[in-house]
Amino acid sequence: MKIKTIVGEKKVEKVYPTTKIIEALGMMDKENVRRICVADPGTGRVEGILTNMDIVDFLGGGSKYNLVKFKHNHNMLSAINEPVKEIMTDNVVLIKENAELEEVIDLFVEKKIGGMPVIDKSGVLITTINERDVIKYLKDQVDEKLLVKDCMTENVVSATPGERLKDVARTMLRNGFRRLPVVSEEKLVGIITSTDFVKLFGSDWAFNHMKTGNIREITNVRIQDIMKTDIVSVTSDIKLIDAVKKMNELNIGVLPVVDGEKLIGLITEKDIVKCIYKK
Predict the structure, then answer these.
(1) Are residues 25 and 108 in the same domain?
(2) Which of 33, 84, 86, 193 could form a disulfide with 179, with the two C-beta atoms 3.0–4.6 Å apart?
(3) Are 116 and 95 in contact (CB under 8 A)?
(4) Does the model's pTM come out above 0.85?
């Protein structure tokens, strides 16, 4: 099956290398997307991609925070007016529009990525394809016998409610995770995602602290103050297809797996793609 059959006329969000970080942030928040393509304004060719994890890196003390720390002397308001090219990921995995679905899944699994730009034969950006697109297309092909426990991630890395934003950001970056469940005394109490960083970063509260130059009040905020607490979870013995349907209905990328109130795993879009691919 060709990619263009799967994504159809899917809208593509893009910015340019000179677009300000704050403008790209606003677009990501408004459109509720985890990644946005950076294209050359003249040729339309992909020059980079800005992801939620780039924002976590930029805000949370990863290598991209050096732009704030050294060039702008911790002045975040000044730093977010820098061009996107300063923090984008420029080593982008691309896929041609006439590629087969199997090639897309191969790249997702091999490169450990959740999405990529789709280009034409001249290298011009057409759209994007991500794990959610693949799952929506393949949902009717999920083996009815598969259970959540057959595909879920166990031994989950988690956060605690009292941890600071910058510490959780470093945990996410170190492990390459887009989200962390929040656990207190083995009980699941919330979840924090890379999207929450984008929303916080684009909020009036954060902007007001940036204006006063007090970036540490943002990075020291406790996770309990920004985490999602209305969590939808599943048990390990339900059918995988039912978990997939629930994720599609709610437009979410992860379901915590619980035994009572105790967290025992996660089932993510990546887990599902790998499981379908393997089976």
Answers:
(1) yes
(2) 193
(3) yes
(4) yes
